[in-house]
């Protein structure tokens, strides 16, 4: 029985869309010109949302038109005929790259300063990295003088062939050959640092071991400060590299691993959300409540970045949940500020103080004032449940209700009113209703007016039932027993 061959036009639409997805964007555009069916399929928004995720993972995925504008924006500074190179690298199309990629093309970079090499590293296209290294190797006679692949800062820098070999994750025999040919294993360049730092950043564990065996320095001093590959690995979250380098230091340079240095590594790991590495340094002597510049603790910086798992590790290891920086800002305050509901609940469960104020330039702000400004009703409820004072007047004279009204957060204002917020509180002689009128927020005005009227009625009622004794002077008040007769009267003098 003979197999019947299907032409592309006979393929089901879903199959064709999948075929298009595995093409580079430029080829899809060419295919769209074949016939109307291909044109319609090539403009399918779901296809371009997937393409956006693949080609521009830092951008929000959207449809065909948005991809086109993103493409032109990202590659604005790249000649149109060269833009396809970036697409080919991202798609892993080594066959086409071998036909058209040149050494000069390695100098190209996109809007974010990313080169073809950077994208090949990002997608771990080793076959492309091998090809790039071969291009560079062929252009280098002495292992030196190869230009830096990117030009973000307006200058090029000579990069040794050893640096290129490490960047392209070449095997140990190539590294050893370059070292035998005279490449300096500890040569530092401005853009990438030393070979061991490159390998530490890119998580090349095999290369790390090769470099260490060939006497790569783990520590060096530059401009009076200490730089280490371990710090680099900690910042990029490469736990296996961290363990390898730590063992190297503890064996050969244990004095480097003092409290200050361990604390620095804990801080960078916490800042970048690497919970496992933070835990590693805590177990090896880092101080959980140590402070860096501006009195910031590791817990504080982890909370600023919304690094929940790291926060949990730090608190489990005894972090002071109410430690604050030099202007009084706590982990709770920044969690409220970034509107991280899960983190707020977690910090509150572990004793975060809802009353601790932030006081930049002496002006005090409470977490609930910040929550009101953001309009997060769930966070407001959580803070109130823990005893937050909704009528606390901050340094600007505003209550939480003022903040909610000022920022147009109707649901937050409604919740605060239901919880007893003072409708008549004044900031520079203005009530929340005055704020709403000034901003011409009709929805907010309609919310506040009934509370305002009710408050005014209550005040008037109090006044009407109040006897002003000062008007009576020395007049005597005569009364009869009210219970003795239905006609008993109250006689005033």
TrEMBL record:
The keyword Repeat applies. Gene3D superfamilies: 1.20.1280.50, Ankyrin repeat-containing domain (1.25.40.20). It comes from the Bacteria. Pfam families: Ank (PF00023), Ank_2 (PF12796), Ank_3 (PF13606), F-box-like (PF12937). One of its GO terms (molecular function) is transcription cis-regulatory region binding. Keywords: ANK repeat, Repeat. One of its GO terms (biological process) is positive regulation of transcription by RNA polymerase II. ANK repeats lie at residues 266-293, 294-326, 327-359, 363-391, 396-428. Residues 5-51 form the F-box domain. Coiled coil: none annotated. This is F-box domain-containing protein. The lineage of its organism: Bacteria, Pseudomonadati, Pseudomonadota, Gammaproteobacteria, Legionellales.
